[in-house]
């Protein structure tokens, strides 16, 4: 029966329940069973993880933008709280456009229906139905017997995700590793985006070495990798390089990498046995593998050897990018280099940062000769948490010019390209502008006793770098965060030397780390302090 005006208005007022729950949607949730950085809607993130976020990468999550009215999940951070907290709100969002969808009340239309494949049995029926100029597409005329009962899995992905085993045409890419003991097990799959390095022991026999598959190069490159899971597109593993290791451990890189070297017995030795494999996988930003290469280390086994040690490594790199080593995740790890870079020129606003050659903050590296002119270009990375000092000696003669000498010493102290910024966290990305701390550069002059100021010049003799850091986040698992870096250049006044005279001046470079963390406030759970005197035999029989 036709709708009356009253029933039509009532049906319009009571729209069907939405098919999509925006509170459960999360487009930035990319890692499996792991918290994605700055992804405020990631269900794998805990309160401690949220306290380390700097911003919400996806602040608003909505369903279909063509709906007239829908729910929107809004995420933000309360940075004034200690520690910072995530704020979640569910609001009603109205589409101002007059051309909008009132409601999506047909659930079967939210996924793609698999088309019916023509066969000799159903061809005439399909021709009668779809062969004319027009045909009906009413829901009642659709055959939903199969698809309606078993709709496609919305979570099924045809791309690699973090940790998913890299599939090959026969099984998966193997990365041998020790499991229970130190012996090699070939059942360890290589996980996508999981950089691994393993070492294990393999039993060998020189007489049968040519029949042991794990000692041959073919075992590691004979299976092609699937570009994406459950696909027919294959990516062949190419040989990137072949290095031959001698009995004393010296390695020689072969010029030809196209020749496949198989194990064989020669003069009581088994040559061309695989001692190490290094896989390098190149992928797109959508999780598709486009290139795979393997670098081999081959060696010889004597007949007395009963086992050998093999090493395996795998790394992943996104196409059109350079791999950048991290120094922590997220906070810095003691002993790892401090990451540094430059802000690109020509941008009206801070758009990102370009890393220097090694993406690290460096200082002068001491040499055995202690000659400053010979040490130019020798740099050592600044390691987080390590106070460092280095230096050299400069021999000055009367023939040296002031300005070239001052510039040379400045290059020795600061390097050819001293960075402008350092990363506040060990995993700070270039596009996260707020995660980079500018380096404050200061100059201090030390006046020396000089009779003639007109014949004197200023030369730099010391570089002092002070790195201030703090414990950030939860007290249970605090993360090291750099908050300030100051580089101070100390110059001294050098008077003109008489002809035939020379002078030796020490030049030093140092790094000092200062912890400026505030003590725990009242109400925070901290370690208790007990002020008591223990009995003299409390730890007996231990001293």
Automatic annotation (TrEMBL):
Highest taxon in the source lineage: Eukaryota
Keyword field: Cilium biogenesis/degradation, Glycoprotein, Signal
Keyword presence, Transmembrane: no
Domain Tectonic-1-3 N-terminal residue range list: 15-122
Tectonic-1-3 domain mapped to chain residues: 159-318, 328-515
GO biological process: one example: protein localization to ciliary transition zone
Family annotation (Pfam families): DUF1619_N, TCTN_DUF1619
One GO location term (cellular component): MKS complex
Plastid is among the record's keywords: no
Family statement: Belongs to the tectonic family.
Assembly behavior: Part of the tectonic-like complex (also named B9 complex).
Protein name: TECT1 protein
Gene that produces this protein: Tctn1
């Amino acid at each position: 029966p036709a709708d009356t005006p009253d029933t039509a208005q009532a049906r319009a007022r009571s729209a069907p329940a939405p098919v999509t729950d925006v509170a459960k949607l999360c487009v930035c949730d990319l890692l499996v069973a792991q918290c994605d950085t700055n992804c405020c809607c990631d269900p794998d993130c805990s309160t401690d993880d949220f306290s380390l976020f700097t911003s919400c990468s996806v602040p608003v999550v909505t369903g279909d933008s063509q709906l007239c009215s829908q729910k929107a999940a809004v995420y933000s951070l309360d940075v004034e709280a200690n520690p910072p907290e995530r704020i979640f709100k569910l609001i009603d969002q109205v589409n101002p456009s007059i051309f909008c969808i009132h409601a999506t009340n047909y659930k079967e239309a939210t996924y793609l229906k698999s088309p019916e494949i023509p066969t000799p049995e159903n061809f005439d029926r399909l021709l009668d139905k779809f062969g004319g100029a027009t045909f009906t597409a009413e829901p009642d005329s659709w055959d939903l017997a199969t698809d309606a009962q078993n709709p496609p899995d919305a979570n099924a992905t045809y791309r690699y995700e973090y940790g998913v085993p890299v599939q090959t045409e026969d099984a998966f890419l193997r990365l041998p590793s020790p499991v229970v003991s130190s012996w090699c097990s070939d059942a360890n799959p290589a996980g996508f985006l999981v950089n691994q390095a393993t070492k294990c022991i393999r039993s060998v026999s020189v007489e049968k070495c040519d029949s042991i598959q794990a000692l041959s190069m073919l075992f590691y490159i004979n299976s092609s990798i699937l570009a994406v899971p459950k696909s027919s597109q294959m990516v062949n593993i190419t040989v990137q390089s072949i290095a031959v290791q001698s009995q004393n451990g010296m390695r020689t890189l072969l010029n030809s990498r196209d020749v496949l070297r198989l194990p064989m017995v020669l003069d009581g030795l088994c040559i061309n046995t695989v001692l190490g494999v290094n896989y390098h996988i190149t992928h797109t930003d959508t999780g598709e593998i486009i290139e795979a290469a393997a670098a081999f280390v081959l060696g010889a086994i004597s007949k007395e050897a009963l086992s050998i040690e093999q090493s395996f490594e795998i790394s992943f790199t996104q196409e059109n990018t350079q791999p950048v080593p991290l120094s922590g995740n997220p906070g810095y790890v003691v002993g790892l280099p401090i990451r540094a870079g430059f802000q690109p020129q020509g941008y009206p606003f801070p758009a990102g940062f370009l890393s220097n050659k090694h993406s690290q903050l460096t200082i002068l590296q001491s040499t055995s000769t202690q000659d400053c002119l010979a040490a130019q270009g020798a740099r050592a990375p600044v390691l987080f948490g390590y106070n460092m000092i280095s230096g050299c000696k400069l021999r000055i003669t009367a023939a040296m010019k002031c300005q070239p000498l001052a510039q040379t010493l400045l290059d020795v102290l600061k390097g050819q390209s001293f960075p402008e910024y350092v990363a506040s966290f060990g995993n700070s990305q270039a596009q996260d502008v707020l995660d980079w701390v500018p380096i404050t550069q200061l100059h201090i002059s030390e006046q020396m006793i000089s009779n003639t100021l007109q014949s004197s010049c200023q030369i730099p003799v010391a570089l002092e770098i002070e790195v201030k850091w703090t414990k950030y986040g939860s007290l249970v698992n605090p993360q090291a965060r750099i908050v300030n870096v100051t580089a101070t250049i100390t110059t001294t006044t050098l008077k003109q030397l008489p002809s035939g005279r020379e002078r030796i001046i020490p030049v030093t470079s140092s790094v000092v780390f200062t912890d400026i963390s505030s003590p725990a406030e009242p109400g925070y759970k901290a370690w208790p302090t007990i002020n008591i005197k223990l009995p003299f035999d409390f730890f007996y029989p231990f001293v």
